[in-house]
């Protein structure tokens, strides 16, 4: 009798856990769908009024007597910031992950991981304050005409995204079966070659996912670019020019714009563009991982 009660309680617990997991998963999916619906709904007035001009015009003058709502300049600025940051932080994150995986001693690995965890917990506004107070004056000394510019924003984005990149890449490398590296070493490969050519290739799906997550993190960052990028709606001619990405425009204007106006709706269009870019990157990453795994089979 007692044994049957234990079995019943265990099965009930499993069913409750299964139900809780399903409810949580469906709530997450539902929340994502509602976000999409909300943003699209708020974007429709601007898309009807300004039309394709939103995506083809470089002019952002929403408060003029004849307003213009072109977001192309800010979109290009967002892409440039993401590209320059990714070119720095992705190789740097891989190098640190490579070192932690293969060469770092246990104490060194713990220290590096602790430093990375500490950096990842720093609020973006604190990083922005550090950039504005301590690094922006140096911009004028190295030839910039504006203390807040693209280079300063890229520096902040690198600091902000580096912990995620390094941690995720190290986890991807560590998830690979150690027998692959041991087999390569047994065949006469060096430690560097074994990790760089064998382990990295096996961990490629995880590394690609970490790259996509890093890019999504960078392109969606708000506070650092709002404080450090300069806020100028212009196409930069150099890394010392001030820029204004889409996230900075949304953050700086959403609190002051008239609710329900075309200006208000255009800011939601900007958010919709960022969301679509994020979804495309995520889907591309999933397709790559699926194709890679099918190719291995």
Description:
The protein has 297 residues and is mainly alpha-helical. It has twelve helices and two strands. A two-stranded antiparallel sheet has the order 1-2. Helix 7 runs antiparallel to helix 8. The longest helix has 48 residues, at 2-49.
Report the span from N to C terminus: 49 Å
Number of helices: 12
Mean pLDDT across every amino acid position: 89
| Uncertain residue segments | none
Helix/strand layout:
Blueprint: H1 2-49, H2 53-56, E1 60-61, E2 68-69, H3 72-103, H4 106-120, H5 124-141, H6 150-174, H7 178-186, H8 191-202, H9 204-219, H10 223-228, H11 246-253, H12 262-296
Antiparallel strand pairs: 1-2
Helix pairs in contact: 1-12, 3-6, 3-9, 4-6, 5-6, 6-9, 7-8, 9-12, 11-12
Q: In a nutshell, what does this entry contain?
A:
This protein is mainly alpha-helical and 297 residues long. It contains twelve helices and two strands, in the order ααββαααααααααα.
Summarize this structure as a short list of keywords or feature phrases.
297 residues, mainly alpha, two-stranded antiparallel ribbon, 2 strands
């Amino acid at each position: 009798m007692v044994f049957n009660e234990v079995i019943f309680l265990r099965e009930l617990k499993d069913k409750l856990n299964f139900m809780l997991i399903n409810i949580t998963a469906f709530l997450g999916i539902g929340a994502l769908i509602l976000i999409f619906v909300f943003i699209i709904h708020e974007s429709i007035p601007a898309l009807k009024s300004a039309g394709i001009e939103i995506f083809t015009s470089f002019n952002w003058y929403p408060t003029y007597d004849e307003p213009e709502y072109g977001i192309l300049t800010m979109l290009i600025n967002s892409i440039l910031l993401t590209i320059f940051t990714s070119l720095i932080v992705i190789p740097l994150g891989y190098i640190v992950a490579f070192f932690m995986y293969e060469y770092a001693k246990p104490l060194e690995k713990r220290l590096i991981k602790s430093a990375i965890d500490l950096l990842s917990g720093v609020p973006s506004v604190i990083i922005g304050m550090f950039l504005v107070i301590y690094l922006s004056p140096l911009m004028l000394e190295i030839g910039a005409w504006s203390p807040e510019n693209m280079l300063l924003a890229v520096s902040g984005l690198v600091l902000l995204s580096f912990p995620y990149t390094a941690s995720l890449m190290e986890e991807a490398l560590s998830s690979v079966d150690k027998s692959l590296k041991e087999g390569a070493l047994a065949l006469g490969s060096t430690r560097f070659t074994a990790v760089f050519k064998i382990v990295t290739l096996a961990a490629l799906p995880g590394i690609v996912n970490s790259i996509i997550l890093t890019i999504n993190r960078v392109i969606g960052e708000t506070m650092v670019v709002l404080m450090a990028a300069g806020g100028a709606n212009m196409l930069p001619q150099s890394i010392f020019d001030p820029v204004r990405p889409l996230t900075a425009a949304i953050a700086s204007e959403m609190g002051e714009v008239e609710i329900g106006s075309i200006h208000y709706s255009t800011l939601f269009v900007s958010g919709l563009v960022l969301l679509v870019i994020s979804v495309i990157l995520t889907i591309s990453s999933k397709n790559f991982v699926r194709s890679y795994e099918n190719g291995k089979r």
